[in-house]
Amino acid sequence: MNIQELLKGVDCACGKRHACDIGYVAIERGAIEHLKELCEGKQNVLVVADENTYKAAGQPTMAALAGKTLRSVIFSGATILIPNEEAVAAVEKELEGIDVIVGIGSGVIQDLCKFVSFNSGIPYYIVATAPSMDGYVSVGAALILGGMKVTLNARPPKAVVADTKVLKDAPMDMLRAGYGDIIGKYSALNDWQLSHLI
Fold first, then answer.
1. Are residues 23 and 7 in contact, defined by beta-carbon separation less than 8 angstroms?
2. Element (H, E) at 121
3. Pairing of strands 17-18, 10-11
4. Is residue 191 helix, strand or coil?
5. What is the pTM of this model?
6. Which DSSP helix (H) or strand (E) runs through 13?
7. Predicted confidence (pLDDT) at residue 18 exceeds the cutoff of 90
8. Which of 24, 27, 5, 191 is nearest to 123 (CA)?
9. Measured between alpha carbons, how far apart are the two ends of the chain, in Å?
């Protein structure tokens, strides 16, 4: 079964049909090209990135969005972007008249777009730039609000576009981090199952 079929839902042995809110996932070389069809009927697009993620995938993203009315929020890449009130406000102030948000990035950009999308009701797509975490399709948005790290309920993107050429060129530390995140989740599930049994 391919990903698009899986997204339509599956009949489970539990007797229920399980589905998710994600409309489209593309993981392949040249996946960013799918933005053309994904953004059909959407004229006003807000692009959110930082200078590093924009360098990784900005040019092909903007090319795929040619002909659209584009606005962008590009955060500095000189320091680590903190997903705090200031960053949220920078994205929110560009939302008027926007049909869709397109995030270019991984963890922090993803969480900012996810949170702003949830609060505004504007759908968002994510252009993945690194396999550094496993939250591309999660419902949680990890933010730092009031100086405290919090994870708030939100919703997953309507589309995930992961170009394997971009992902493979991510910094090695980000590749290692993603591997560690997956292994950590696997052991955490085992811990949960063990605690449930006892």
1. yes
2. none
3. antiparallel
4. helix
5. 0.88
6. none
7. no
8. 24
9. 35
